[in-house]
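We modelled the chain as a single entity of 299 amino acids. Its sequence is:
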Amino acid sequence: MRISVVVPHYNQPEYLQICLDTLKAQTPVSADVEIIVVDNNSIETPEHVCADFPDVTLLRETTPGPGPARNKGVSHASGEILAFIDADCHAHREWLAAIERVFDNPETQVVGGDVRVNILNPNKPTFLEAYERIYAYRNEKYIAKGFSGTGNLAMRREVYDRVGAFAGIGVAEDRDWGQRARASGYRIIYVADMIVYHPARTQFSKLVQKWDRHILHEYQEMPTGMGRMPKWYAKAVALAVSPLVEVLRIATTSRISGLRMRFQAFYCLVMIRLYRSYAMIRLGSFGAQRQARNDWTRS
């Protein structure tokens, strides 16, 4: 077995260094492993980072978006297993071992793993870290809906060839690829011990930008019909009051601890869901006039 690890990168050399460090510190596996970094037209190509890892291949993709970067990596990959991790993530030391183990079963076709949020300073968590520990990157939930986040995804090469390339920046490329895979008859399996760690956002505006993209994609994909807009507005109203339903989850979850951290998570939840409600009403009233951003790291 040969595993090709593809890492899309854009203007995050410090994170890429950590990512590659963790990929090189993996528990030994019997599979051959190649690592391909694809720079997505960064201001400065991360040659100085990759130079510390002689076995890492560095490529460049000028078409904006992590999807095209991943496609470029796949075009140069030689493994029968393709594994994807983002440059701002780092892998648990058993990540490759979990991938190798699950693909030892010849019936396994596509898998997605657990994505956990890091807390930079455990003694002083931010309200965004508290919130995202509970609500961000819930890949098990996404997989139950038929797609996996592409920052922790693996598949057989033959599946990629049959389903097709990842989409560009104009769509939610993880959901789009997953839906096409499901339409082709593939089921994505959740692998709990296939773990990567993702930093929390450091600014509330980044969380807003994420939801701007998701709301626009959802609006554009809504089925047509007379009940289209009433359903849209009803969902917007429901979002505004939904934090009340989440009180018990925040009070009892094991993902965070302490009264202060739980209050921080609830505060952030209220703020972002009120914003989402407002953004949906605004979009329903004025139409999809905003374009997807070209800076795909604004997540």
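As a brief sanity check on the tokenised model: The chain has a mean pLDDT of 92. The longest strand covers residues 188-199.
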